[in-house]
Amino acid sequence: MSGIAAFSTLHAAGVDNTDSWHALTAGRSGLRPNALAWCELPCWLGEVAGVDDAALAPDLAEWDCRTHRLAWMALQRNGFHDAVRHAVARHGAHRVGVLLGSSTAGIRSTEVAYQRRLAEDRWPAEYDYRRTHALDALCRFSAEVLGTAGPMVTISTACSSSAKVFVMAQRWIDCGLIDAAVVGGVDSLCMSTLHGFNALQLLSSEACRPFDAARNGISIGEAAGYVLLERQPAQINFVGGGESSDAFHMSSPHPEGLGAQSAMRAALASAGLSRRDIGYVNAHGTATQANDRAEAAAMRAVFGADAVPVSSTKGITGHTLGAAGITEAIAVIQALAHQVLPPSANLGQIEADLGIDLLRQARSASLTHAMSNSFGFGGSNCSLVFGRTH
Amino acid sequence: MHFDLFAAGALAPGVASITDLLAMRRAGGSAEAANLELPSPQALPPNERRRASQVVRLTLACAEQALQASPFKADQLRMVFASDEGTGEVCQQMLQSLATTREVSPLVFHNSVHNAPSGYFSIGHQNRQSALSVSLGRESFASGLLCAVSEAQSSGQPVLFLSYDVPMPQPMRSLLRVEQPSATAWIVAAAGTVREHDPLASFELSLHAPHEAEPAAAAWLPATWADNPSAQGFVALAMLADGPAECDFPLGAQRLRLARVDGVARC
Question: A129 and B110 in contact by Cβ < 8 A?
């Protein structure tokens, strides 16, 4: 167990923690028809406002890229930077680790540079692969901004990346390597994922509708999120995580969600809880036909039919891929803090026979423990449990 | 953290096994290494073998070496895979498509994720354990080893750790200079958790304050891949021969120290 000392979330529907929570509970979607100048696909997107005009501090200019602008915005808001400064003062910089998730890191920088290279036959002089694309750049940039000196790792397991950071951070704390951890994740809009999911015919032509009978795919969003974990418990805590592999297919989930079931069961075991202790599940709920059916089957198998309130907040934020784990972990932390369960947005007719208690509207609840699910390509599954001390 | 190494693999031009690596270390160098032909992964279903990318061939072949000497079944091992960029020609193919036709092949896209090798390993061996795919750029070996050993420590279960780099074609190679593949595989468990099998060696892993000197390059490794981030794994495994009793690897603002603590050369 570790305490949640601070957090910061940023996505298409929320510029800060307060704005995000209002959007999540009102079911106010940040998804809009694609208006990107550099992508012609007829889909809806969760684009964060103001990224093009955001500026890093002048001494950080060499790190400038869309992913790091999102990171910078999240680090500067919600008092997060100050909270880490205090943790560094309390524990020592080398005792604060940085564990971040990303699927595509700064690949948008290389997409732009690659196109210019084709035209000019050389890489742009100002293009810096190491600082603006490489998977480790986000960790190094965040550590430089925050003044941490503890061990670092970028986890890149597609859409479970920034959920798995909690589990590894807990291991580093338990092994005595660190006393606090900055965990989180960032992914920005890029051609790779938009055209890649389009090739798999998984992009919805409308705002995504998780668990709706007429759902027809995902809406991609961008997001940045950070949580400061500390060894000492707080009012809200990370209490356990479970991981598994489907061992089934690179990009399709196991039809009965066998891997998802074992991740949820492992998370309960790690938290020392039974299924009856969980008062809310924030589903992975991507709005593809296959994912939502498999995840509903897995939740029925673990919790029983209609036994626990469920929502997917991806209709509001979009599927933020490598940042989905942290974005939805923070939604669960806020649900515990406010004692309110956020709904599934864009919902018309719920698919019959899913057997889940899907939230259409925000619901007040006496909530002590809640779960967040994240599943990714490669059959990579992670479930997290958070709890509140009453 | 005190851990035991139960089996290991090493694969790169000039190194076809851990035995080759230790012989190279003892000889203090090698002749010019020939190119490495990566085998089709026999663990995968036949329809996946032919289409397997270079990095999937590399990691599964290296893992296979360790599995052959492993006291644990392949489906019992937790997986921690570590690489700098980690996808090589797949990344290059996707960028080329995006900059020209914008028609990305579905196969290229799902192979472009950093965790494709661990995904294929889990499918090939029907392994349903936790799988992690990590990076810390040129320090990916140290960061990955720290993750693998702390996972072994907290879970009490054995972990398969893979550290690897795969060649990047031009034009990306001028940004990310990996010309030859290299990989090591480690099957580790926390000290004291496995009593029924003898380890190859025991190690202590710890974090320390930084020091001024850069780690010395391993002059005995073939120059075409000695600068790969994953070559650090070869330096570490060379402690199984007559190498130093400890090695330091940079890890952000600190250094990771790997010290051999059993003192007995069994290889």
Answer: no
How many angstroms away from the CA of B26 is the closest CA of chain A? 33
Q: How many helices (H) and strands (E) does chain A have?
A: 12, 16
* Residue A118: how many other CB atoms lie within 10 Å: 12
CB atoms within 10 A of CB A234: 17
Cβ distance A114 to B98 less than 8 Å, yes or no, reads yes
Closest Cα partner for A268 from A281, A259, A277, A279? Answer: A277
User: Any idea of the CA torsion for A322, A325, A330, A335, to the nearest 10 degrees?
Assistant: 140
Strand A96-101 versus strand A180-187 pairing type? parallel
Which residue from A149, A151, A143, A148 is spatially nearest to A175, judged by alpha carbons?
A: A151
Find the length of chain B. 267
Helix (H, G, I), strand (E, B) or coil at B45: coil
* CA B108 remoteness from chain centre: 23
Residue B48 near residue B120, CB atoms below 8 Å: yes
**Segments of A128-168 assigned E as strands:** 152-155
Instruction: Outline where DSSP puts E strands in A218-327.
Output: 220-221, 223-230, 236-245, 281-282, 309-311
Separation of alpha carbons B163 and A325, rounded Å: 25
- CA atoms of B80 and A157, how far apart (whole Å): 11
Q: Are A291 and A253 in contact (CB under 8 A)?
A: yes
pTM of the complete model: 0.98
Q: Tell me which chain B residues have a C-beta less than 8 angstroms from the C-beta of A270.
A: none
Cα A301 from Cα A263, distance rounded (Å):
12
- Residue of chain B with shortest Cα separation from A121: B171
Amino acid at position A193, single letter: T
Cα separation, B150 vs A175, whole angstroms = 7
Cβ within 8 Å of B, A 64-123: 93-94, 98, 103, 110-111, 114-115, 117-118, 123
Smallest Cα–Cα separation from B6: which of B184, B183, B234, B160? B160
Work out whether the CA dihedral A5, A10, A13, A19 comes out positive or negative.
Answer: positive
The upper half-sphere exposure of residue A322, i.e. CA atoms within 13 Å in the direction of its Cβ, equals 33
Per-residue pLDDT of chain A (390 residues; tens, 9 = 90+): 999 999 999 999 999 999 999 999 999 999 999 999 999 999 999 999 999 999 999 999 999 999 999 999 999 999 999 999 999 999 999 999 999 999 999 999 999 999 999 999 999 999 999 999 999 999 999 999 999 999 999 999 999 999 999 999 999 999 999 999 999 999 999 999 999 999 999 999 999 999 999 999 999 999 999 999 999 999 999 999 999 999 999 999 999 999 999 999 999 999 999 999 999 999 999 999 999 999 999 999 999 999 999 999 999 999 999 999 999 999 999 999 999 999 999 999 999 999 999 999 999 999 999 999 999 999 999 999 999 997
Instruction: At A332, list the tokens.
Output: 């669960």
- Neighbouring-strand partners of residue A197: none
The answer to ipTM > 0.90 is: yes
Beta-carbon contacts of B159 under 8 Å, excluding residues fewer than 6 positions away, are: B77, B78, B79, B80, B148, B149, B151, B152, B187, B188, B189
Burial (0-12, 13-18, 19+ Cβ within 10 Å), B226: middle
SS3 B170: coil
